[in-house]
Amino acid sequence: MTDTQAIPLDPDVFGPESTCFGCSPLHPIGFHLRFERIGEDVATTFVPHDKLQGPPGLMHGGLVTTLADEIAAWTVIALRERFGFTGAIEAKLLRPVRIGEPVRGRGRITRDSGRTLAIEVELEQSGAIAYRGMFTFVVLDERGAERLLGGPLPEAWKRFARGSVSDSPSVKANETNGPEDS
Fold first, then answer.
1. Which of 14, 44, 54, 111 could potentially form a cystine with 60 if both were Cys, beta carbons 3.0 to 4.6 Å apart?
2. Which domain does 19 fall in, by range?
3. First CA to last CA across the chain, in angstroms?
4. Which parts of the chain sit beneath pLDDT 70?
5. What is the pLDDT of residues 15-38, one digit of tens each?
6. What is the DSSP pairing of strand 128-138 with strand 116-125?
7. 137-163: buried (b, 16+ CB within 10 Å) or exposed (e) per residue?
């Protein structure tokens, strides 16, 4: 794979019943994001609509950070085949994110200790960096994730827990849209 070849990621890795605000295709008010892997980055494009504004014509800053958080989460999923829980966020809103204009987001892992990962996320709009953030994700084992969730880990999520052995196809590529990334 070349650094410029975009490999679509499977949006249904957490099952059709996923309730994620960021990526579930069925969430009634969610972002419905789709991701791709480009080298060691994970990317998405999103066009904010008027129901996401804070000040007139601008995306609400908390929702901008929600977008970046979802990119960080999918960076962990795609590059480490694990899911993580957001442990810390350092957000820098450098420019306003405008409603109706495409936002291109990219995430990359900058540090991996096995249990925690640092992910840098940038959002670009109209040729300028609008947001830069650092996220710390904690990767839990199945029991730890269940304690945090307060209940059982959904079956489709179990293979992404720390210490699990995945017997299913890689999430790095959507088999129907691109070659498997090995």
1. 54
2. 6-160
3. 9
4. 1-3, 165-182
5. 877 888 888 888 889 898 999 999
6. antiparallel
7. bbbbebebbeeeeeeebeeebebbbbe
Identify the CA nearest to 82 among candidates 106, 107, 117, 110: 117
Report the C-alpha gap between 178 and 172 in whole angstroms: 10
For 119-147, write each residue's pLDDT tens digit. 999 999 999 999 999 999 999 999 999 99
Helix (H, G, I), strand (E, B) or coil at 47: coil
Residue 1 burial (10 A CB sphere; 0-12, 13-18, 19+): middle
Which strand (E) or helix (H) includes residue 78?
Answer: helix 61-80
Element (H, E) at 7: strand 6-8
| Inside any domain, residue 142 | yes
CATH code for the domain in which residue 126 is found: 3.10.129.10
Give pTM, 2 decimals.
0.86
Q: Is residue 175 part of a domain?
A: no
